[in-house]
Design goal:
Blueprint lengths: L5 E2 L6 E2 H7 L7 H8 L15 H5 L11 H22 L8 H25 L15 H27 L7 H39 L1
Antiparallel strand pairs: 1-2
Helix pairs in contact: 4-6, 4-7, 5-6, 5-7
Amino acid sequence: MTNPEKIQGPIGPKSVEGIKEELPQGKPSSFESYMKEGAPGNPIESAPGGTTPIALAQTGPIFGVEPTLSSLLGQVESIKEQSKKTESFLRSSNLKLKRSHQKLLDTKLNDSKDHIQSAAKKLGAKIEEAPEIKERGSPVAKFLGYLTQGESQLINIQSKLKDISAGGNPLPIADMLLIQAKLSQAQQAVEFSAIMLNNVISGLKQIMSIQI
């Protein structure tokens, strides 16, 4: 009877166990690596805790659904609420930001401000002038400046939407879709910032409790 532990090949018998030892162990296939790591050159940006802008978008307005004045006003309120939350985190005495956090916040909050301003321009609302930000000022002061300007602009957008709702010139649907998109982008950026700051502060509190 042929020994099941032997395999006859062109270069002689090899034991099954020997072949197993030669095979690479635990190395994922290229496809598995691709799925876990993402496509080369396209890293998925995420906040601590695994939240990504894609996930945030799923909680916001659904593109393709026709916006209304009421839905736009709801977006404005949501951004204002998230801005206040982000501002509260920035004023926390326990906040210590790494350079990478500062760079990400600068990008996200500046983008949010710009998206809000774009929505205001398309709506025909009053445009707020950007406050002077000292180049040598603290990063937190700069971030608070972005939020303050954005919140002031949101108030103007809110006022303009209410005027239109009360009998002003109606907005073309194309303009409303663009305003919806810009407000949604601003909302995602502010929510991302709030989540990141919350996780940074929570991590610091945990470290402090362990040290105590």
